[in-house]
Description:
The protein is mainly beta. The chain has 2 domains: 7-227, Lipoprotein localisation LolA/LolB/LppX (outer membrane lipoprotein receptor (LolB), chain A, Clam), CATH 2.50.20.10; 237-352, MucB/RseB, C-terminal domain (Phosphorylase Kinase, domain 1, 2-Layer Sandwich), CATH 3.30.200. It is built from 5 helices and 22 strands. The strands form 3 sheets. A 13-stranded mixed β-sheet has the order 1-8-9-10-11-12-2-3-4-5-6-7-13. Strands 14-16-17-18-21-20-19 form a 7-stranded antiparallel β-sheet, covered by helices on one side. It is globular and about 60 Å long. It comes from Cupriavidus metallidurans (strain ATCC 43123 / DSM 2839 / NBRC 102507 / CH34).
Amino acid sequence: MHKGPSLANAAGVHGKKGLRRSFFLALCLTAAAATAQPSDSTLNRRDATAWLNKIHRAAQRENYVGTLIYQRGSIIHASRIQHYSDLVHNEYERLETLDGKPREVLRQNDVVHSLIPEAKLVVVEKQEAKDRFPALLATNKSDVLDLYDMHKLPAERVAGVECEVFSLDPHDTARYAVRLWADRNSGLLMRAQTIGEGGKVLEQVAFSQVDIGVPSDKQRILNAIKGASSWSHYEVTYQPASIADEGWSINTPIKGFQKIREVRRPLGELHAPTSANKSGQVFEVLQVVYSDGLTGLSVFIEPVSEQRARREGVASLGATQVVVRRVADFWITVVGEVPASTVRQFAAGVEYRPPKAVH
């Protein structure tokens, strides 16, 4: 359930995959509980749409403070989240890691400040927050219910909150199933899981503790942003790009995945800017992001470089699949929270024809 890796993830800024919605992580469940499929009923399209919209709006408009537990493969970590919204729906958010190196992400609407204390570095970029737990829908352009059936399961409690439980089951094998636990009253997403073959939970995210409807403390977030103003700043810029103009085409025969963004962006380990490298950036790549509205993947195109030792191959962690292949003098990397066959099809569909020189 995510639109592709964020810069912070790709650049190793937080190393948490940008905490994307697609990485549905949660409290550990037993295999028996995870695969149990009680009798359910299919929601009609109107009711299903209403619940999806309610879940999505709650993430943006409710005030909530809580602790999130993430699990992806064998990796488990925790974060503290604070989220506030005002009367005109401005958003203020603070996300602090509770494991490993201290990391803090401060957000005001779509402007994200990622703080790296040991380097006294702030990475500033624009990100859409609608693809990050507990938000849900990656894009308004794709109708999720054309690709998934939504079923209502027996209600459960999560973090002391009475929840309605739903499953979104795909019409094909090109995407994973998703299971959602939403607060019965506010609609705030309490737990989400990505489900693989045989009902296996591949990734989970859940609140282990949460307070909903708390008074706003947005000023503390604004003060934290201001307090880091003396640190080194690196501003990430995304330039619009056209891969076709550079000789690339991507054949995507898989139904439902729409191209939602083409950009040229920095990639690599970020450091505080120096006199020799004023931007602090390593190099740039092309990125094409696809989404079916609920999950997504990214295609990265980068020139072969001594700066990055690469080799062809495949890898996976939780629901995330990665394929790397070489085309001409470029590396193609496809990363997605989708089955391996889908990532392989996208990787195989990338073709290059050197553009003709303009005289």
